[in-house]
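Input record (one chain):
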Amino acid sequence: MIERHLFEQIGGFDPDLDNFYTDIDLCLRLKDADRECWSAADAVAYHFGGDFSQIDRSYKASFLKADLKAWFRAKNHHRITIDMDHYYNQSWRYFRSTGPEPAENYVACCLMNVADLQWYLDVMRQYLRLTDVAKLPSGRRDSGTEGLYEMLGYDFLTIRAPIAYFVDRFVSLANNQLWWRQRADVRDIIIDRHGNILRVADL
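The corresponding structure, as predicted from the sequence alone:
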């Protein structure tokens, strides 16, 4: 949500970026204009369109995304700061305010496909006690769906300690109803690489 006059004042979306990174580029230019970008943790949006990981469309080809990412970073390198920890802090505060207290200890089950997994673990250790860490990246960056039975197997299903699932996108775990039913009495949570922290019950 942005006022039209402000959107036009800062130049709108950059057409050179085509279908990728236009929103982030816009936010960085808002920052240059001494404006703030806010996230609403309880907002719900419905996107009636294609999912990059599931629909094969020529304008969403992975090589185009890689090229545009390079262009975006070259254009904005002086504006980019590492601030994801602030988003996790916001998400954590919202998480704490909207439901039961988190468990005392968690087993970290890391399915993320990131180069710097340790950074995510270190950030979350500010909020959670991670007693064990299993690193099992799925190999499918930003997948639309991940099957927990296929990836983790029965041994993980029977762990009675709460599990903190680290994934690329929290929505990728939605279609695991049988898994969740069998772990219904355990306070599992999901953490994704975009700063989201949520209870499985809120998935």
